[in-house]
Design brief:
The complex is a heterodimer of chains A (201) and B (268). Chain A has 201 residues and is α+β, with helices and mostly antiparallel strands. Chain A is 15% helix and 18% strand. Chain A has five helices and ten strands. The model of chain A has no long low-confidence stretch (mean pLDDT 91). Chain B is mainly α and 268 residues long. Classes of the chains: A alpha+beta (201), B mainly alpha (268). The interface between A and B is large, with 40 and 36 residues.
């Protein structure tokens, strides 16, 4: 998938997640690692797992999307916020939410098609995945990427590190071309069916 | 619907009532009836009071209400910033009309029209907040149509007690037309949604199955039309009933419209 095909600005460095749904086993370690790193309240999950339903993959609970914030090229949250509590970092395109500015209006929560910003009832503000920019700046991987036991989650540079077989919006992921989410997916292969000749008929 | 959206039900309905009262002043401004100034003063006074109450109620939906002073910071892209600016401008124009009537005695039609146009602009900005791709059923002109319909129903409903006898006839005819049009709109919307993608279909289905939707259609449109047709008058209790029905409709708006995040992992 080239930058032109996704209508992305090729001159701007953009980090994003690569989700390998072929490797992902749905263990939820990524979501737990995020919780452990950022200590959100129990009702707030920055990273969530979605299993693909049978219409998309014939075997239930076999293919998962591990989704957090997609750090879009044209973030809906940034456009919707009335107090400019969101900014997009020039160096890597990470969309950062500034807690001190947020007034908890919920407009970003309403605007994001993937439900990335969530309301923190204790802080009475919105919050979302920050791609662990503090860890990235320190030369570490985001907590979710580091924790994944099967290396199904990676941080890549969109347009530079994308595998040739990756997709920006596979079936089951709401496609919003205008926002241009910085996330790529490797789709799962169907399992090989082995027939047992002795049990036929 | 989350608890923090209840104040938005109050804000949207009250702000639409405020705009509706101002719109109801337009036909009065076009007449040359005696005491028009007094009636207009009452209408604009009620409009301003309702708007002030709406703004106060809206603060309750903020996690940090004191931060609301900064909400004009993103007029460039945020429809919420624009909504606040538009309602602020509308409030100022209503106050200007009140001041002109108070000092001069006679209304200025251009000023009244300006307030009405600004009120419509505020309704449009308000509707655009909810017309986002994340809510496919509302990513179109429907939010504006719903909000305008509310204003056109509530305005004449509450303006009638404040108006003179001759004005009441005009307002009741207006109200009957608005109720008929509004009823058709609210019945057609779910049927339109049933023909769309997954999120829209689920929205249409949930809306048609909701008991509150059926109650709202009966009490908010059918019953008032029957009362108005039978009596030819607009009792105050009917205005209050219409306000409650609009509130119920807004609860449905916030609670029964599907979000795209609910369709992740599912086929279209």
């Amino acid at each position: 998938m080239t930058a032109a095909q996704t209508n992305r600005n090729p001159n701007r460095r953009q980090l994003g997640f690569l989700i390998d749904t072929h490797r992902c086993i749905g263990c939820g370690t990524c979501a737990m690692a995020c919780k452990n790193q950022h200590q959100q309240p129990s009702t707030v999950l920055w990273r969530r797992l979605y299993d693909l339903k049978e219409a998309l993959h014939p075997f239930r609970n076999r293919v998962f999307f591990s989704l957090a914030c997609n750090h879009c090229e044209h973030p809906a949250c940034l456009a919707a916020c009335p107090v400019k509590a969101y900014r997009k970092r020039e160096s890597d395109g990470i969309v950062v939410h500034t807690q001190e500015k947020c007034i908890g209006c919920g407009n970003c929560i309403r605007a994001c098609p993937w439900g990335a910003p969530q309301y923190n009832p204790e802080l009475k503000q919105a919050e979302k995945c920050s791609l662990c920019w503090q860890r990235l700046d320190a030369g570490l991987e985001p907590a979710c990427v580091q924790a994944c036991p099967v290396r199904a989650l990676q941080v890549i540079e969109i347009g530079a590190d994308e595998p040739d077989d990756s997709l920006p919006w596979p079936p089951g992921f709401p496609a919003m071309q205008a926002l241009n989410p910085s996330v790529r997916f490797r789709t799962a292969e169907l399992p090989v069916v082995i027939k047992d000749e002795g049990h036929e008929g | 619907m989350r608890d923090k959206e209840l104040p938005l039900v109050g804000f949207t309905v009250l702000s639409q009532l405020s705009v509706g009262l101002c719109l109801a002043a337009v036909p009065l401004a076009l007449t040359d009836m005696p005491h028009a100034g007094i009636r207009l003063f009452n209408l604009f006074g009620a409009s301003l009071g309702t708007l002030a109450l709406a703004m106060l109620v809206s603060l309750a939906h903020l996690g940090r209400p004191l931060g609301s002073v900064r909400t004009l910071a993103n007029l460039k892209t945020s429809w919420l910033s624009r909504e606040i600016a538009a309602f602020g401008g509308f409030g100022l124009l209503v106050m200007l009309n009140l001041a002109l009537i108070q000092t001069g005695g006679a209304p200025w039609p251009l000023c009244i029209l300006a307030a009405a146009v600004m009120g419509m602009a505020a309704l449009y900005a308000s509707a655009r907040i909810y017309a986002t791709p994340s809510y496919p059923a509302l990513d179109n002109a429907l939010p504006f149509a719903f909000f305008l319909a509310s204003a056109l129903v509530l305005g004449p409903a509450f303006a009638t007690p404040l108006a003179g006898p001759a004005d009441r006839r005009v307002l009741i005819v207006w109200l009957c037309t608005a109720l008929t049009g509004g009823g058709i709109l609210h019945l057609a919307a779910p049927l339109y949604w049933l023909r769309g993608g997954r999120s829209m279909r689920l929205t249409g289905r949930d809306m048609l199955r909701a008991p509150l939707f059926r109650l709202r259609m009966a009490v908010g449109f059918a019953l008032p039309l029957i009362v108005l047709a039978a009596s030819g008058s607009m009792p105050l209790w009917l205005a209050v009933l219409l306000l409650a029905a609009e509130g119920a409709g807004r609860v449905l708006f916030f609670s029964h419209v599907g979000h795209t995040a609910e369709t992740i992992g599912q086929a279209e």
